Amino acid sequence: MLPEGAQSFIGKIDEEISVSFEIKGRYGIKCSPHYAMGMVMIIDVGDVDDATPLPDAVPRRARERMSKILMTGE
Ligand SMILES: [Cu+2]
Questions:
Q1: What is the spatial distance between Cα 4 and Cα 68, in angstroms, rounded to a whole number?
Q2: How far away, in angstroms, is 18 Cα from ligand 1 center?
Q3: 16 dihedral zone (left: phi>0; alpha: psi -120 to 50; beta)
Q4: In angstroms, what is the span from residue 34 Cα to ligand 1's centroid?
Q5: Taking CA atoms, which of 17, 30, 33, 43 is between 20 and 30 Å from 58?
Q6: How far out from the chain centre does Cα 56 lie?
Q7: What was the pLDDT predicted at 52?
Q8: Whole-structure pTM value
Q9: Ligand 1 center to 4 CA (angstroms)
Q10: 42 alpha carbon to ligand 1 midpoint, in Å?
Q11: What is the three-class DSSP state of 66?
C-alpha cells in the first residue's frame, strides 16, 4: 500500500534498513514471510485521509491487524 508516485522498498531478513518518505500519504508495510499471520504496520506521512481504504488483496489477519492499528493507533 503506497501513495501514488511513491517507491516501494524491500529489506532482507535481519538487515537494518533506513527509508526516507518524501511523498505524503499512507504506507502499508508487510513482513513477507508473516504477512498472512498479520505482521504488518502502517506509516502515515503528513495528514492522511482516514477513509483511505485498505487494498482488497490484504489477507484476513493482516486486514484485521491494520484495521486495529487504524482504530487504536497500536
Ligand atoms: Cu515477520
A1: 24
A2: 18
A3: beta
A4: 4
A5: 17
A6: 14
A7: 78
A8: 0.84
A9: 26
A10: 14
A11: helix
